[in-house]
């Protein structure tokens, strides 16, 4: 994990290697960045960089930093939920 | 998430990096860990807790519920080449079976180690019969494996 200074702005994660959509595309209904990124078994996992909390520190992780290792990525609905 | 944290030593033994992801901020992750999860698992959550504000990652992984504004219970097993080998998505009220995730990782690791020369039949557990695909196996699986062999 890369440790990062934390400010008041809430950091967000982003895909890695995807160009920033042009302003006119942002206004359009279709999200071009998502096209061709079908998540399927047997296909590459989309790479991303995202902010994390890890053992008392704030930082960021990049999925591709785990290349060479197995990864379990667990999404869940929210902190303080019951299951 | 405490169930995954509890099994973290097993994931480590298997050489697995674990990441949890929800739409909550890093700050909320900290408070949830400090105030609740650390009371359920000694030492708290040992792996990075990703903040997916806006569901950016969840959308790409197909687990973001636009209506609810949350990431559903999606679990992905990714191999050392960055290829997704397994995925499972549950609606929020039912929790995962972490043991099953571990079983699947062990099975995928065996297949990878043998370069696909051995494959694992349904319900396979470490030490149990594997199958060696080839012309001789066609129509002959029954000679090597039956569903009851797992019991």
Question: Rg of chain B to the nearest angstrom?
Answer: 19 Å
Could you report the average pLDDT of chain B, rounded to the nearest whole number?
94
CATH architecture of the domain at 2-95 in chain B: 3-Layer(aba) Sandwich
Number of helical stretches of at least 4 residues of chain A: 1
Query: Could you tell me the radius of gyration of chain A in angstroms?
Result: 16 Å
Principal-axes shape call of chain B: elongated
CATH class of the domain at 2-95 in chain B: Alpha Beta
The SSE order of chain B reads HHEHEHEEEEHH
Structure description:
The complex is a heterodimer of chains A (about 80) and B (about 150). Chain A is mainly beta. Chain A contains 1 helix and 5 strands, in the order E-E-H-E-E-E. Chain A has one domain (about 1-65). Chain A has one helix at about 25; strands spanning about 1-5, 15, 50-55, 55-60, 70-75. In chain A, strands 1-4-3-2 form a 4-stranded antiparallel beta sheet, with no helix packed on it. In chain A, strand 3 (about 50-55) and strand 4 (about 55-60) form a beta hairpin. The longest helix of chain A has 5 residues, at about 25. The two termini of chain A are about 25 Å apart. In chain B, the strands form 3 sheets. A two-stranded parallel ribbon of chain B has the order 1-2. Chain B has a two-stranded antiparallel sheet with strand order 3-4. In chain B, strands 5-6 form a two-stranded antiparallel sheet. The model of chain B has no long low-confidence stretch (mean pLDDT about 95). In chain B, a hairpin with a 4-residue loop joins strand 3 and strand 4. Chain B has helices at about 1-5, 10-15, 25-40, 55-60, 100-115, 140-145; strands at about 15-20, 50, 65, 70, 75-80, 85-90. Chain B has a domain at about 1-95: Glutaredoxin. Helix content of chain B is about 35%, strand content about 20%. Chain B has about 150 residues and is of the alpha+beta class. Classes of the chains: A mainly beta (about 80), B alpha+beta (about 150). Chains A and B meet through strand 2, strand 3, strand 4 and strand 5 of A and strand 1, helix 3, strand 2, helix 4 and strand 4 of B.
């Amino acid at each position: 994990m890369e440790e990062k200074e934390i400010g008041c702005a809430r950091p967000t994660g982003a895909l890695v290697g995807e160009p920033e959509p042009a302003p006119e595309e942002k206004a359009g209904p279709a999200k071009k960045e998502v096209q061709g990124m079908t998540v399927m078994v047997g296909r590459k996992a989309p790479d991303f960089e995202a902010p994390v909390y890890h053992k008392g520190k704030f930082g960021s992780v990049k999925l591709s930093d785990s290349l060479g290792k197995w990864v379990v990525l667990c999404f869940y609905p929210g902190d303080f939920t019951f299951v | 998430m405490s169930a995954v944290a509890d099994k973290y030593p097993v994931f480590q033994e298997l050489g697995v990096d674990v990441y949890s992801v929800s739409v909550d901020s890093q700050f909320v992750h900290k408070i949830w860990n400090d105030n609740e999860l650390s009371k359920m698992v000694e030492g708290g959550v040992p792996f990075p807790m990703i903040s997916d504000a806006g569901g950016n990652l969840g959308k790409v992984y197909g687990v973001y519920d636009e209506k609810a504004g949350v990431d559903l219970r999606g679990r992905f097993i990714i191999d050392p080449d960055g290829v997704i080998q397994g995925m499972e998505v549950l609606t929020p009220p039912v929790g995962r079976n972490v043991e099953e995730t571990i079983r699947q990782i062990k099975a995928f690791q065996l297949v990878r180690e043998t370069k696909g020369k051995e494959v694992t039949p349904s319900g396979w557990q470490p030490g149990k019969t594997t199958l060696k695909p080839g012309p001789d196996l066609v129509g002959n699986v029954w000679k090597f494996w039956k569903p009851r062999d797992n019991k």
